[in-house]
Design goal:
alpha/beta, Rossmann fold, 2 domains, six-stranded mixed sheet, four-stranded parallel sheet, 14 strands, 45% helix, globular
C-alpha cells in the first residue's frame, strides 16, 4: 500500500511540508486520533490487507486494464494510453478508497457511514460498500448536483443509502461537505465520515492516497510490461485530487516521468466564481479541517466555485498536491468547460469510450500535450454514463445529437 516517497509523508502531525494538519473542534481530536491509530494498525494487519486485496480482485474487478488508444494517438501524434478506472465496479476510482474506509469503519465498530458527494460517484461507491458490509449509509449531496446527476441519486437509493439534499449556498460539493461535517459532529462515535478525496483533516489525505495508490502501482507494472518503459507523461484531473494522487504516487521518484494535474477553468479562469482552479489561482488557507491552497475571498472564506464537472467544483485541494506544486514535481494546468466537452465527444467517437466529464478534462489536456511528443498515460478516472442526459441537454445540438 506504500512506496518510499509517500512513506515519508505526511509527518506524524499530518503535514506535507506546510500543508495538511488537523484543524478540528476539540471534541473531534480524540476521535481523529483513534481513526489515525486504527489506520496505522490495519496497514500492518495481514488479514485486513488480504480481505481488501480479495475484494479489489473479485468484487471491483482489479487490476483495471491499460488501453492503448490507437486512433486517438494517431490523430494527435503521440502514443496515448488510458488507465481504465472507468471499468471498475461502480464506474470510477472511488470504490478503491470506499472499500478501504468502510472496512476500517467496520473494524472500529462503527455502524453508519456518512459522506458528501459531488458527481455522485463517491456516494454510489460508498453506498455500494455499505450494502456489501451491512452498514447504514447517509450521503449528502447538493440539490444542483442531484438534478444534474439524477441517475446516481437513484443508484444510491436502490443500494439502500439515504440521500440528504443540501439546499444552501450554491447547492454543490462544498456545501455538501459542510453538511456532512455538521452531521458527523452530531455523532462521531457511531458514525464514520468516509471523506471522498485526499482532503480533510489528518489522517484522511494519507489514508485515501494509500488506498488509491493501487492505481499507480498497477499502472507502473502494466506500462513496463506493455511497452518496456515508463510513460514520458502522466495526466490526471484534479478536484480534491484522489485519482491524481493515486496514479502519481507510484511515479514520484521517477524524474524522467513528467506529472500533470488538470484543473477546471470552468467558464472563465479570470473571473472569481466561474472556475475551480485552486492550485492555479488559489493561495494557502484553512478549510474543512486542513491547510492547503484554496480559492478564498479577502476574509479568508472559501470563494464560490464552478465547473461543468460536479466532481471538480471544490474550492480547496489535497494538501499533498499543494506540496508537490511548490516542489515543482507536478505541473498543474487548466482546461475549460468547452475543451472538456470537446474531449468528452472526441473520446466517445474516436475510441468508443464515454468518459466522465471530470476525466474528460484530463483527456483534453492529453490531446494538447500529444502534439509535443512523448508517450502519455491518462488516468481515465470514471465513465460518463450518468453524464449523458446533462451533456445531451446542454451541448447536444453543438455535436449533432438529435434535438
Amino acid at each position: 500500500m506504500h512506496n518510499t516517497f509517500t512513506d515519508e509523508l505526511p509527518n506524524t502531525d499530518g503535514y506535507f511540508g506546510e500543508y495538511g494538519g488537523s484543524f478540528i473542534p476539540p471534541e473531534l481530536e480524540e476521535i481523529m486520533t483513534g481513526i489515525s491509530q486504527a489506520y496505522d494498525d490495519i496497514t500492518r494487519d495481514q488479514a485486513f490487507l488480504t480481505e481488501l486485496t480479495s475484494l479489489y480482485q473479485h468484487y471491483v474487478g482489479r487490476p483495471s486494464p491499460i488501453f492503448h488508444a490507437q486512433r486517438l494517438s494517431e490523430k494527435f501524434g503521440s502514443p496515448i494510453y488510458l488507465k481504465r478506472e472507468d471499468l471498475n465496479h461502480t464506474g470510477a476510482h472511488k470504490i478503491n478508497h470506499c472499500l478501504g474506509e468502510a472496512l476500517l469503519a467496520k473494524k472500529m465498530g462503527k455502524t453508519k457511514l456518512i459522506a458528501e458527494t459531488g458527481a455522485g460517484q463517491h456516494g454510489v461507491a460508498l453506498a455500494t460498500a455499505a450494502a456489501l458490509l451491512g452498514m447504514e449509509c447517509d450521503i449528502y449531496m447538493g440539490e444542483v448536483d442531484m438534478a444534474k446527476e439524477h441517475p446516481n441519486v437513484v443508484r444510491m437509493h436502490i443500494l439502500g443509502a439515504r440521500v440528504v439534499p443540501v439546499s444552501h449556498g450554491r447547492k454543490t460539493l462544498k456545501e455538501a461537505v459542510d453538511a456532512a461535517f455538521e452531521a458527523y459532529l452530531g455523532d462521531p462515535v457511531n458514525q464514520f465520515y468516509a471523506i471522498g478525496s485526499v482532503v480533510g483533516p489528518h489522517p484522511f489525505p494519507r489514508m485515501v492516497r494509500d488506498f488509491q495508490s493501487i492505481v499507480g502501482n498497477e499502472a507502473r507494472s502494466q506500462m513496463l510490461e506493455m511497452t518496456g518503459q515508463l510513460p514520458d507523461h502522466i495526466v490526471a484531473c484534479v478536484g480534491g485530487g484522489s485519482n491524481a494522487m493515486g496514479i502519481f504516487s507510484a511515479f514520484l521518484e521517477d524524474e524522467n516521468v513528467t506529472l500533470h494535474g488538470v484543473e477546471p477553468a470552468g467558464r472563465n479562469l479570470e473571473v472569481r466564481g466561474e472556475h475551480a482552479a485552486t492550485l492555479t489561482k488559489g493561495s494557502p488557507g484553512v478549510m474543512h479541517g486542513f491547510k492547503s491552497y484554496m480559492l478564498q475571498n479577502d476574509q479568508g472564506e472559501p470563494d464560490e466555485v464552478y465547473s461543468v464537472a460536479s466532481g471538480l467544483d471544490y474550492p480547496s485541494v489535497g494538501p499533498q498536491h499543494s506540496y508537490l506544486k511548490d516542489l515543482g514535481r507536478v505541473h498543474y494546468h487548466t482546461i475549460n468547460d468547452r475543451e472538456a466537452i470537446d474531449a468528452f465527444f472526441e473520446l466517445s467517437r474516436v475510441e468508443g469510450i464515454i468518459p466522465a466529464i471530470e476525466s474528460a478534462h484530463a483527456i483534453a489536456y492529453a490531446t494538447q500535450l500529444a502534439r509535443q511528443g512523448g508517450s502519455i498515460l491518462v488516468n481515465l478516472s470514471g465513465r460518463g454514463d450518468t453524464d449523458i442526459d446533462f451533456v445531451a441537454g446542454q451541448y447536444g445540438k453543438d455535436y449533432g445529437l438529435p434535438g
